């Protein structure tokens, strides 16, 4: 009985669902399903490294229709790296965003250890988590692969490039901040999210 509860609870934070019972609608994707999704995410079979960038800057009209939305703009960088030891592809994410009524740039990042599929097979998501019980996000793709659908309930955030800052900050989903549709764009648009010069060069020359 305990095992049946552990799996949904473990997945809740990482796939962007609100309640444990919603996680019952998902199952772990098999190898073929995960590889197919990775090829969609990176617009081709990923090599040793791969990147995908998605961006949304919400205009005044959109924000007027969603008065409770806290986020004014968001960037998502999804990265893949092939491990030479285990021969597996490891996905990770980084988001950068600005609040609507607060100054400053904020980040979050983590690893994506789960690829899950709805039991109806109508959506597949990467389940991504932030270390130290920092919550997480679920990342799906639109049918045409031109947009990323980001779902979250709660995720730890920090001021841009300051992941070790002392202040504990969290982006919590409200009525208008639980789902974000971001448009695929050139990886250079996500250059600000790069963590080192090698990655920065790769993003700028894609």
TrEMBL record:
This is DUF3617 family protein. Keywords: Signal. It comes from the Bacteria. The keyword Signal applies. It comes from Bradyrhizobium guangzhouense. Residues 1-20 form the signal peptide. The keyword Signal applies.
């Amino acid at each position: 009985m305990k095992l049946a509860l552990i799996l949904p609870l473990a997945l809740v934070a990482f796939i962007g669902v609100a309640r444990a019972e919603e996680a019952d609608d998902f199952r772990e994707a098999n190898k073929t399903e995960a590889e197919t999704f990775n090829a969609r995410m990176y617009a081709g079979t990923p090599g040793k490294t791969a990147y995908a960038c998605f961006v949304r800057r919400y205009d005044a009209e959109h924000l007027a229709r969603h008065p409770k939305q806290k986020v004014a703009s968001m960037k998502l960088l999804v990265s893949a790296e092939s491990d030479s030891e285990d021969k597996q592809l490891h996905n990770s994410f980084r988001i950068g965003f600005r609040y609507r009524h607060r100054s400053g740039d904020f980040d979050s990042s983590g690893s994506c250890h789960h690829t899950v599929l709805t039991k109806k097979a109508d959506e597949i998501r990467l389940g991504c988590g932030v270390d130290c019980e920092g919550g997480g996000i679920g990342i799906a793709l639109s049918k045409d692969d031109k947009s990323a659908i980001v779902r979250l309930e709660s995720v730890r955030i920090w001021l841009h490039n300051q992941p070790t800052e002392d202040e504990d900050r969290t982006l919590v989903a409200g009525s208008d901040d639980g789902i974000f549709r971001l448009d695929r764009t050139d990886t250079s648009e996500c250059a600000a999210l790069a963590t080192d010069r090698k990655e920065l060069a790769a993003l700028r020359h894609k």
